[in-house]
Write a structure and sequence with these properties.
The structure is a homodimer of 544-residue chains. Chain A is an alpha+beta fold. Helix content of chain A is 40%, strand content 11%. In chain A, the strands form four sheets. In chain A, strands 7-9-8-13-14-12-10-11 form an eight-stranded mixed beta sheet, sandwiched between helices. In chain A, strands 1-4 form a two-stranded antiparallel ribbon. The longest helix of chain A is centred in the C-terminal third of the chain and has 25 residues. Chains A and B meet through helix 16 of A and helix 16 of B.
């Protein structure tokens, strides 16, 4: 048997039945990854904390494979469409790189490259005969139910080999996508961290740190260039958080504008907060590329819960973009590298004639955060405990935290109605406040810092507040990474809250060195197209 | 003291405190209606069952006032805009006619004509000075919270003098609307009937019959031409049912496309089914007129729960309209006059080259009806009982029916999630079924018959199923009324269900003579504009 992959810290424990099934799943994945793609002992025994360069230096990929996997999805698909690349060579390159990535950051849960190559061959034959590609999305992996492949809702007891493709997968296949991997998500799918019965995924830029969550395996894979693009489902940050922590581009669209039918969950019908599915990318343009392609298939005709809003990114805005900068949310002050990125962005934007910059003060974010935390588990976490019990699975610290009082309690039906009414009143009050500010977008942190050390992500306010409001949010690299020489200390100020103190206490620039620093741009509900246009402007100014 | 208005049958009872407060409300309304507008004893002592002609024959209205109140809103507003009518004379005519209507069908709960006239005077002054009207909606009453006026959520304990205008009222006022009455709704707002602590509203075409509900007071008032147009809020039929029963035009739009912030309810946050607000009219074109005007104000910018869909009625459809005719829903066969109207419509439509007609068989309507009935009161009716108790108010038979098993039970949170998941799966299955039918719209009954005798409306399936699905529905007159000479008996067939037997048992063409017969046209979610265009075609063919 081949040498096992890198030991993964703190795998969740459970009873005997649990351990047996976990072992089986681990061995299954182990067996799926070809011996020819194992990283040699000299490399595995001597890993740097930043593993992003290892695919390029390990010698397992050809120059051509490295070149293919360096392309973003837009370029990749353009080259396939022109016949400059075949689907087979593309899928081969990505499959190999994904296997390498997995050994370094433990991002996969299922690996089916043979299926991907078979499909790629069909696509190449079609191209040879018809002279055109089936659709623009050749070679995109993702994580929602794929027929016959491993799926779960974040607990061992929910593992399935999915009986059908979900609608998103059907659409992607129709667009010519090739699927070859499924990626890891955390226990309960409710961590900004990725650790599950499959093990723990790591941040490619610093394996001491989390890759974020819940789509952390997906983000780690994409950051390793083991996939050109991916899909997440964001109910509290699950697209934006892992994209932010892994230095990617990601959009959480307004909810119910993208197909998400049949996604796996353990609380189906829990609709107090509706997650939203969207792309995780290696460029800003890929966000538009992905959504344009999916929307063009008119998924609202098939999935009746969807809102048929048009998708047209304006070339020009009809007035000067007004950007509110929110340096902190009144609850947790971002750690030094995030504050540096915000101030750097602010000064660059202020220096531009193209935009108008104002200070944006948070509107009762603590109150909103309290509401969404209470909404997530209206049953007081009883279902989570039941599903754990069914799998013989022990609860992880972050799962215990997310379902614990004071934020979570068991509700009667009238109490749940009252809670949802508070949600709607908050939405109205926030909207009034935003309208009064006159801002088109606000720029803020996506998390109170960069990726944190494992199991420390105990504040969701910067992403979850916009889930509560259902405002689209776009995360993207700020142009800087955590530098222990610069990002030394907080400005001296009293902590704002207990979580603020917590983030100050664990901040350690030496340990967290090299973590990407991403920013978040937010617009009001249904202003997704304007947001994408605004992000282009902001990125251009900030990165100039 | 003036002679009291017509005795109203079966006013709900209650305890002493309740009776005292009800008496106070009755006396208040009594005092608001001027003595000069009392119908003489000779008329009130000798009323026909059809009272629609009495305003024209009673001698209290001038020819000019009769002519004004004969106009639909579109014509009325056009004449005001051209200076052919003043706001003051319009409001005077409508105020007088509303007071007369109330004596005949007991439709009002608050009457504030003086306020209306003061506002009309301002509007006329503005017109004299500026040569234009403030907006297109001069002279429209309605029933949502109006600052300082009587409001309630259908129970005595919820009575208020509203502290603020609701958003809809603010918009209507900005458009130049004049408000002068509030109208009656049933206990709990959850009857297809209108009987409350204010008393019972009657059907103007046959006072033996209900005017429908929940916006029954509004429908009775409009059918009496005591208002040109009105507003309802439809969570199970509350626009469509009273419009259908009173021979009006009414549209329940796709929900959350029209402003409904601050509407009164006793279960705020109960969001398993979201009602939808829309117009109740005396012509089809007034439906478009009303919605166009309201949507043009962009209410979604103010009310963040709203979806900003465009409102543009296509002049022409891009293909031949495909109409599915559903003769019954598989649960209750419509009573003879409704079946006659459906078959008459079918044969006229089949004779037209302009449309394509197919049979539409219902898709598991009983299952859907069971789901929505269970969704309305996830608390098993506990809140209804509490709110009744608080007001010392006895429960009415239809309220008891609507909160009773088997349809209603108390849910835990996981049971409520499971119920909502069943809702979403039903929506998906229904949409798939509809898509396979290829229909653009379906034509069906809005209720299993015309208006029924009081307190008999114990089946909501024909309207509520489309609330569950959130499909827009347009009701409109079929061109016929119940004729005891023609609409004699059911075709002999076994009853489909217990409610089917119930509707057969009480059907009595002599007693129900003259009831208007309306039809319902339904489209899929968010296809409101196509639906309005389709209704124009269908109405033209059916009424030709």
């Amino acid at each position: 048997m081949a040498k096992p992959f890198r030991a993964v810290p703190a795998i969740p424990s459970g009873n005997e039945r649990y351990n047996a099934k976990v072992k089986q799943l681990n061995e299954r994945l182990e067996a799926q990854l070809p011996a020819s793609l194992r990283l040699p002992k000299e490399i595995m025994g001597n890993l740097p904390v930043n593993v992003t360069q290892i695919p390029e230096t390990c010698g397992l990929l050809s120059d051509q494979e490295l070149a293919i996997t360096a392309l973003d999805a837009t370029d990749l698909c353009a080259k396939i469409a022109k016949g400059e690349l075949t689907a087979v060579e593309t899928v081969t390159a990505y499959g190999k790189r994904a296997a390498i990535a997995h050994q370094l950051v433990h991002c996969l849960v299922d690996f089916f490259l043979a299926d991907g190559l078979a499909r790629a061959k069909e696509l190449d034959e079609y191209f040879a005969k018809e002279g055109k590609v089936i659709g623009p999305l050749h070679g995109l992996p993702e994580q929602t139910p794929v027929k016959g492949k491993l799926g779960s809702a974040g607990f061992l007891s929910t593992v399935e080999f999915s009986p059908e493709d979900s609608l998103m997968v059907k659409i992607l296949r129709d667009l010519g996508a090739v699927l070859y991997v499924k990626t890891n998500q955390p226990q309960s799918i409710m961590h900004l961290e990725t650790v599950s019965f499959h093990g723990r995924s790591l941040n490619p830029y610093n394996t001491n740190l989390t890759c974020g969550g819940s789509s952390g395996g997906e983000a780690a894979l994409i950051a390793m260039k083991g996939a050109p693009i991916g899909v997440g489902n964001d109910g509290g940050g699950s697209i934006r958080d892992p994209c932010a922590k892994c230095g990617l581009w990601g959009l959480r669209p307004t909810s119910l504008t993208m197909p998400q039918g049949d996604y796996l969950h353990y609380e189906m019908g829990n609709d107090g907060i509706i997650p939203s599915t969207g792309p995780m990318c290696r460029s800003a343009r890929d966000v538009d590329f992905f959504i344009s392609a999916v929307r063009a298939t008119k998924p609202h005709l098939v999935e009746p819960l969807l809102v048929p809003l048009p998708w047209n990114i304006p070339e020009k805005l009809d007035r000067k973009l007004r950007i509110g900068i929110m340096l902190h949310d009144g609850v947790v002050v971002p750690q030094p590298p995030m504050m540096r990125a915000l101030k750097r962005a602010k000064s660059k934007l202020e220096a531009s004639d193209e935009v108008e910059v104002v200070e944006y003060l948070p509107f009762e974010h603590k109150a909103g955060y309290d509401i969404i935390r209470e909404l997530y588990f209206e049953d007081g976490g009883a279902t989570v405990r039941r599903v754990l019990e069914e799998g013989g699975e022990d609860i992880l610290p972050l799962t215990e935290w997310v379902i614990s009082p004071p934020h979570t309690k068991e509700h009667t039906i009238p109490e749940a109605w009252e809670l949802r009414f508070r949600r709607d009143k908050y939405r109205q009050a926030y909207s009034d406040y935003w309208n009064a500010s006159g801002c088109d977008v606000i720029l803020c942190a996506p998390f109170p810092g960069t990726a944190c050390p494992h199991d420390m992500a105990r504040y969701w306010g910067y992403t979850a507040i916009f889930n509560l409001l259902d405002y689209p949010g776009f995360v993207f690299p700020s142009g800087i990474k955590l530098d222990p020489k610069i990002d030394v200390a907080y400005e001296s100020r009293e902590p704002l809250s207990e979580p603020d103190q917590y983030f100050r206490d664990f901040y350690d620039p030496e340990y967290m060195v090299g973590a990407p620093v991403n920013l978040q741009l937010v617009a009001k509900r249904f202003n997704d197209c304007m947001l994408v246009a605004a992000q282009r402007i902001v990125e251009r100014i900030i990165l100039s």
